[in-house]
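Appendix B, example 12.
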Amino acid sequence: MKKSWLLLLSLLILAGCGKKQEVVQIGAFEKFQEPFLRISFSHPQGWQLQQDGPKIGFYSSLEAINKFNPYSVEGKDAARVIVNMDKMDTLKTLDEIVRSLNSDLTSSGFEVSSPVAKKVSDLDGKLLHYRGALDSKNIISGDEVVAVKDSMLYTIIFEGFNKMYEGSKVVLDSVLSSLHLPSFAAAAPGVDPAVPAEEMEVFENNFLKISYPANFQPSPASVKDPVQFALNIYGYRQDSGVFIDVRPAQGLTLEKVVEQNAARFKETSRGSATIDGVPATYLNYTGGKGISSRVYFLVKNDKFYRIIYNYYQPMKGDFQPVFDKMVASIKTK
C-alpha cells in the first residue's frame, strides 16, 4: 500500500483551477470474471484491462495506464479502478490496516479524510478518501476501500485526475455493489485454521488440473519467459503450500531436466514417483528454518512441470499427506 510518488504537500489548487478537459461519459457496464481467483465484478465497457496475478485493474483508456505508474500530468485526464487480493504475511486487524494506509497516504502528500464504513461483498470494510495536487493544474483524487478475512486483505482503489474523478465515481459504486469474492471453508470452533480442510476443490486451466483443500486459495503468479504459467496454492500459513510452474521442455528428457536443475536445491535425498501416468523425480531439500521442502520434476507433452511444496515441520502430519494427495491429483495438458 506504500505510495512511492511525491505530491505537493498542500492543496492550494481548487478544482475549478484544474485543466479543462472533456470528461469521459460512463455508458454500459459489463461483468469481469476471473475463474482462477473466483472473483467477479462489473466495470465500464471499453475500459482497458491490466492484470498482474491477483491485482486486476481497469483503465479509462489505453493511454491511461501510463498516467498512474507513477502519476503523470502528460496527456488527457484519466481514471482507473483496481481490485486486489493479498495474502498477509503478518495478520492485522482492519483498524491496523486503515491506520497504516492513512499514514502512507499522508506521508505521500495527500490530504486524507476520516475513514467511512463500507461493505466489500459481505465483509465489513473501511473507505479512505484522499486528494492531492500534482502541480498548479492537476489534482488526483481517490478512494481506497479495504476489508479483511482471516489472512486475506482485499483492496479496491478508484482514482481520477481532475474532473475524471467526479465524472467516473459511479465506477467505484458499481464495483462494490457487484463484487463477488471467493468463499472459503470456515474452520470449526477450536480447529486450527491452518489445517487443510478435508473437502477438496478443483483448479483447472489449459496447462493442468489439480485438487486442493477448500480452505486454500489458488492464485496464478506473474511469469517471464520461458515460464508459461505459474500457480501458488496456499492457505492460512504462508510457509506451507504448493507452487507449480510450467515451461517448454525443448526436447529434454526427465533425466536431463533433473540434471540441469538439481543444483539449485540443497538436496538431502531423492526418489521417484508417477504423476499423471508418467515418471517423475523428486528431491527433498532444505528450506527455511523449521520448513521441510520437496520439488518434483515432470516432463510430458514437451512441457517441463516443476511442483514444489513446503510445510511447517511441527505440522508435518497435517500438511504432507494432503500435499502428496494434491500432487497425485495433477493432470497435465
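The chain has two domains: 15-178, 201-332. Residues 1-20 have pLDDT under 50 and may be disordered.
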